[in-house]
Amino acid sequence: MKTCQQAIKRLFDFVVSIVSLLILSPLFLFIALLIKLDSKGPVFYSQERIGKDGKPFNLIKFRTMVVGAEKMGLGLEVARDDERITRVGRFLRYWTLDELPQLINVLRGDMSLVGPRPGVASQTARYTSWQRRRLEVKPGMARTPAPTSSPTSTVMSRQKG
Fold first, then answer.
1. Do residues 120 and 76 make contact, with C-beta atoms less than 8 angstroms apart?
2. I need a labelling partner for 10 at 20 to 30 A (CA). Which of 73, 86, 106, 149 fits?
């Protein structure tokens, strides 16, 4: 991507993320309250992910599991009926509301609104040379659409699939 295109994309990401954060701030506060009422621990969960050019950054999400969940059960893997997921967390995951704090990552410049999902270091270490190409661009909140996905698919149908 050319420098001018990168600057325009960054400006777009910045403006959309800051406007979205302002508009969604009441929802952020409500979700934070629900998380605090539902379980002990912090509102946000941060995990090191690998971004553009293999640079690590801390991905921010609403916490949907019990504190210390990565040291219990399946570790970093999550089953659909995983008992480490809190009641509020199950709702947030179903509607993908747990991803909203990634707007902060977009605002910081660690991520873009659209791009490949960022992997954890243990995943990216096993990437093939073809898969490593995804590290040439900023990771995104929303995946780049795949040719096989339907433009009419809904959040619910994607969640159930």
1. yes
2. 149
- Strand, helix or coil for residue 113: strand
- Residue 11 tokens read as 């400006």
Q: Are strands 112-114 and 140-142 parallel, antiparallel or unpaired?
A: parallel
Picking from 148, 49, 134, 55, the residue whose alpha carbon sits closest to that of residue 99 is 49
- Does this model's pTM top 0.70? My answer is yes
**What are the sequence ranges of the domains in the chain?**
3-146+154-158
Nearest to 59 by CA among 127, 1, 140: 140
pLDDT digits (tens, 9 = 90+) for 84-102: 899 999 999 999 999 999 9
